[in-house]
Design goal:
This protein has helices at about 35-40, 45-55, 80-90, 105-110, 120-140, 145-150, 155-180, 205-220, 235-245, 250, 255-270, 310-315, 340-345, 410-420, 430-445, 455-470, 475-480, 515-520, and strands spanning about 100, 185, 200, 295, 335, 360, 380, 405. It is mainly α. Among the domains are: about 1-220 and about 495-500, Serine Threonine Protein Phosphatase 5, Tetratricopeptide repeat, CATH 1.25.40; about 305-385, Orthogonal Bundle (TPR-like).
């Protein structure tokens, strides 16, 4: 059973990003039918309901779903959904994905030619900060002082202490996304007054330090690992810490590989295990008996109806000669495929050797002559709205398939990379064993195992692609290896060339939307974006 709560609760203030004409959200409205933060928590159940809204902020795009009352304005609800935006930014600018659609500037992502007025960049930016604002309001309204003021029972106070830590994790997660995509960004916490003001801009290094401090501070307050599915727990916080430590040299200029190893070991020692069947990680019942997933964004065909999330990932990948019913959907959207550079990372294209090679090739050209043509580029069959027993999901329009944001295989690969990069506290033999465990699942036996001499950083980068493709890691990985921009690694249509050309290093960061630069005099644009 999915741990999803239907939300009908509307909270005044959650529609704000960081500025507001409302001077005081604690003001009780004259119209008693209007709900504000001052009254919503009079109901003890609201603490759980509003927390569910925060989790749902990663999965849905508005109050009604899939369209009709979006959280942010100016863009179609599907395009403005959190996971879909994160996927666009992490996958489309890389060798792992192209999209055939002509929606506004979407192809600029794969070409690496975007600018500060890009509507998709703005949608992701404002979605991130909408989520942060919502978390801030929840954290503000669950302080000890607020609970005492409302006469909360000791039992409720104990529960809310954990809920508040979860909200702080979700805020840290969104600030991580902001740091990764945009670098120096506006910064507001629950300690800032609610009202009309211009947030200051925090440096990427200072934001890194803030995220690290927050995650360490809430660690003891979160539930134990593997206690409840799709809820932030201690291992979820450890996973985000390991991730920022692996990328710390990019974010701050200072390597933190030893810290990455420390937190990878905490996760590994918490009792997680690889799912025996790789394909089951991406099916409609991937929430059942799945001891590999550390944290997932939960989707449900009835409760979380959206045109983003895994609905987008599954539908957009189906077109051409593909049979939509094989993917548990009523029809494909004919959008996303992959490049030959990614396909060539596998020993074959059939999946007979490495089962992770999930390509649909019938009627598809391996090489992309025209990005706008769906049959140019192999299609990806990794994600489905089909259960492991072959039956379909609840709906052929809205998948039940959850999105694993953190899982054990990623942790194994982070551990191995951090060891190779000189981190202490781990050892090469253990790193090799973890990598071979992943490959034994992929190959079905030890035929794909590698030796110590094969375990290099270049191998790790390619293995991360093979294991984690279309899971929103690729852009960050390529940047960490110095291969996202520039000419060290080329793939088809990088730089808007069929063979791929070097691109400007400025694209390692996305620009802060021009609309926010114009609205907030405290913000400075990222270098070389006008």
């Amino acid at each position: 059973m999915k741990k999803i709560i239907n939300i009908s609760l509307l909270i005044a203030g959650f529609i704000l990003i960081f500025t507001s004409c409302t001077k005081d959200l604690d003001t009780v409205p004259l119209d008693e039918k209007v709900t504000t933060a001052a009254t919503v928590f009079d109901n003890p159940e609201a603490y759980t309901q509003v927390l569910a809204k925060l989790y749902a902020g990663l999965a849905v795009s508005g109050q009604e779903g899939p369209a009709g009352n979006g959280d942010i304005s100016g863009i179609d609800e599907g395009f403005g959904q959190y996971l879909r935006g994160w996927w666009y930014h992490q996958e489309l600018p890389t060798d792992e994905a192209v999209i055939s659609w002509n929606d506004q500037t979407i192809k600029d992502f794969h070409y690496q030619t975007w600018g500060s007025s890009d509507v998709f960049i703005a949608a992701m930016y404002y979605r991130i900060f909408y989520q942060i604002a919502a978390c801030n309001e929840y954290i503000r309204e669950t302080s000890d002082a607020k609970l005492n003021e409302r006469g909360a029972s000791d039992d409720l106070k104990a529960k809310v202490k954990t809920y508040r830590a979860e909200a702080r994790f979700l805020r840290a997660l969104s600030y991580f996304h902001a740091m990764d995509l945009f670098g120096d960004v506006p910064f507001v916490t629950e300690d800032d007054k609610v009202g009309n003001f211009f947030p200051h801009q925090i440096s990427r290094t200072d934001l890194f330090n803030y995220i690290e401090t927050e995650l360490k501070d809430i660690e003891s307050l979160l539930i134990e690992p593997r206690t409840m599915y799709a809820r932030a727990d201690k291992a979820t916080a450890w996973s985000l810490l390991a991730t920022i430590y692996l990328n710390a040299e990019v974010y701050t200029g200072t390597p933190r590989y030893t810290d990455c190893i420390t937190y990878c070991k905490k996760i590994i020692n918490a009792g997680y295990s690889l799912n025996p069947d790789y394909k089951n990680l991406f099916l409609a019942d991937n929430d059942v008996d799945n001891n590999e997933v550390i944290f997932a964004i939960a989707f449900d065909g009835d409760a979380t109806r959206t045109y983003g999330g895994t609905n987008f990932i599954i539908h957009a990948a189906v077109g051409g000669d593909m049979n939509p019913s094989d993917f548990g959907i009523g029809g494909g959207w004919g959008g996303t495929r992959t490049t030959s550079a990614f396909v060539d990372k596998f020993p074959d294209e059939t999946g007979d050797i490495d089962c992770r090679a999930m390509f649909f090739t019938d009627g598809q050209n391996k090489e992309i002559e025209d990005i706008s043509v769906f049959t140019d580029g192999y299609a990806i069959t990794k994600w489905k709205n089909i259960q492991s027993n072959g039956s379909g999901g609840k709906s052929m329009d809205y998948p039940d398939t959850d999105f694993p944001m953190f899982r054990l295989a990623d942790v194994y690969l982070m551990y191995a990379e951090a060891v190779l990069r000189g981190g202490t506290g781990g050892d090469p033999g253990t790193a090799l064993n973890y990598v071979n465990l992943i490959r034994e699942r992929a190959y079905g036996d030890e035929s794909g195992n590698i030796s110590a001499n094969d375990l290099t950083l270049d191998f790790i980068l390619d293995e991360r692609a093979r294991e984690l493709y279309w899971e929103c890691h690729r852009r960050t990985d390529l940047i960490r290896f110095g291969k996202f921009t520039g000419g060290d690694y080329l793939w088809p249509w990088k730089g808007k060339s069929s063979d791929g050309i070097a691109t400007d290093p400025k694209y390692n960061l996305f620009p802060i939307p021009a609309s926010d630069i114009g609205a907030n005099p405290n913000l400075t644009q990222n270098p070389d974006y006008n």
